[in-house]
Amino acid sequence: MTKDHGPSIKNDEKYEALRNEGMSKTKAARIANTPNSGKKGGKAKDYEDRSKQELYDKAKEVGIEGRSKMTKKELIHALRNS
Asked: Which of 10, 39, 47, 59 could form a cystine bridge with 76, CB 3.0-4.6 A?
């Protein structure tokens, strides 16, 4: 049975799975709280094909700090490594 991690974690099952894989609490929470974190499909555009604004919006959604000063290349790097 999945433990209830309180209102700050939206998807407790996903959070626990990520923590069991060795992710930090912060990163696991960020991924578990993303609305489409458990969905698959591969229909998203590559980061290189997105506009800087789209990348900025995604960075904001996942909580990347300092995004307003980042270039498109830096946003892509931050999104891939967060």
From this structure: 47
Percent of the chain predicted with pLDDT > 90? 37
The SS3 of residue 36 is coil
Scanning 1-82, the segments in alpha helix (DSSP H) are 12-20, 25-32, 52-62, 72-80
Tokens describing residue 27: 């990163």
Task: Spell out the residues 6+ positions from residue 68 whose beta carbon is closer than 8 angstroms to its own.
Answer: 56
Residue whose entry in the numeric block shows the structure tokens 């904001």: 60
Tokens of 61: 């959604």
Location of structure tokens 């069991």: 20
Q: What is the pTM of this model?
A: 0.51
Q: Locate the DSSP E strands across the chain.
A: none
